[in-house]
Design goal:
Two copies of one chain form a homodimer. With about 325 residues, chain A is mainly α. Chain A has a single domain, classed as Alpha solenoid (CHAD domain). In chain A, helix 4 packs across helix 9. Chains A, B: Pfam families: CHAD. Chains A, B: It comes from Streptomyces erythrochromogenes. Chains A, B: This is CHAD domain-containing protein.
Amino acid sequence: MAQQNRNPSTWGPCAGDVLGTYLRSQATAFLRGMRQYSPSAASGADAAESSDAARSLRGAARRISGSLATFRVVTESSWADGLRAELVWLSSTLADEHAYAARLARLMDALHRLSGSPELPAPRGSAGALTVGSARAGALLERQLTLARTRAHSATLQALGSSRFHAVADAVAVLASEVPLDAVAARGPVAEVLVPLAAVAETRLSAAVSALPPISGCEAAPSPYNADHDGLWHEVRRLLRVHRYAREVLGEDVTRPAAAGEALNRHRDAAEAAAASATAARTPRIAPATAYALGVLHADQRHEVEAARADFQHLWLREPAGHTAVTAG
Amino acid sequence: MAQQNRNPSTWGPCAGDVLGTYLRSQATAFLRGMRQYSPSAASGADAAESSDAARSLRGAARRISGSLATFRVVTESSWADGLRAELVWLSSTLADEHAYAARLARLMDALHRLSGSPELPAPRGSAGALTVGSARAGALLERQLTLARTRAHSATLQALGSSRFHAVADAVAVLASEVPLDAVAARGPVAEVLVPLAAVAETRLSAAVSALPPISGCEAAPSPYNADHDGLWHEVRRLLRVHRYAREVLGEDVTRPAAAGEALNRHRDAAEAAAASATAARTPRIAPATAYALGVLHADQRHEVEAARADFQHLWLREPAGHTAVTAG
């Protein structure tokens, strides 16, 4: 087995040992999540447990596919490429239902906060009309996002019953006991094999961060509603996750990428929520008061997007990035 | 005349000299502005000159009433109280027309900026519907604010033709040559009469600033749309102006209060613009796309309110306030 391939010329464990241990533990987490996940759970406690299981299933799937991407050459590459593509499909399918539920919760929270102030709707005169607007906007969003969530739930059930899913589960079950490794690369020392590959992932991340357009900031935002650049940020989020998992493989501290990743999750969530609000506003025959509340909500979420970008830059760019930094101690 | 009332016991000029010089120069500016102001000017150059004249007329009226308030006991108080009330009436009447024009310009700029991004209206799919919304929102605001401006213009013309205005103009003409002073207080030294009175104005300002609720900040605004606290900020703006004019009387540097005052002007303008957008959204029978654009605009202007509050706190609270601070030289 892989962990036995020790390289006699080095003191530490070889690349295959380290990567194999990580992949096996993630595969085990994937299988445990799969067993505990019951997407038809209706009651409170079961539903909560199933939701936790789904989260850890998605997390394990992302970690396996992320580390197979970074450390591809240490594994049997064609096997890794195939499994990776299937895990990306699976985790994105599983993520949809959760994403719609979370988006609805975020938008309802925002509406609640916004209409908590009697001044929002009608700074002068009766506030009635637009509190009604907020309530109607909430009902409209709930209808649209619940429908989307129900569709995503059906898609999840269909995916879990598919032969495609069973093939993925089988592949992960194999991975839990034996990781297909490249015979030569796996025997190399960690410092010469895994560390440079992790550095490549980090360089990609740094390049993507450098390519981000300057954020508009809070004081003089030139165009906080412009979603043109969202894609560049979403790509940074993806690369940061890959970088974080590479650090996990190497047993390094991930506090900072995890915190910065949280900011980028908020960024993605707010951008999607703003888009959902704009989409809802295009529903035919809605009342002007509803549309007004959706406009306020859209702008609010775009400002959350800006705030998340500022948070990320604060968390990520304040100190020099990278696991190669010298740690005093 | 007042400037002759020197106090033989001090080296410097007496309180009456200093206050009298300031009030006479402001009264002269008032009269010059009045001569050059022609509210019926239609052509470009004349209209621009008249607008400048109106601004300096308003500025002089505010400076006279502000310093009469701060240094009331140095003047004939009953005369000062009467003139002050009339100047407040006049400057607020004159300010309305300008305010509606500026509010419309601010809202049109914001709409232009917001719809400059094709993503604002419809992040997915055709952007057509809500660019139309922005255009309609602009047309609606233009109609409403132009009407308000026209009414304010009529009110200005009516005020300028009134006997009430002529009485104010006569009083200011008297002030330009001779300031009615309190015989005793005016003979006191500046440091014992004017400086303590200016300090009272500054203490009032400091108390009002301390009483401001904590600002929500840019990252986690709990309720940026809440206009409940606007009044407290508008009061700080008024007190800051009074403080600034007191410093002007004493010949002190006003760079900092002027800059902080600019932030509070932006605060007031953005709050009024947000209110105008909310009011427009309550127009019966508007299209949902129009209401949506007005909602975005409202939220945008409330965020400008927040940004102006942050600017003020940055400008005003960063260093200890007050003209008593020791200046390194």
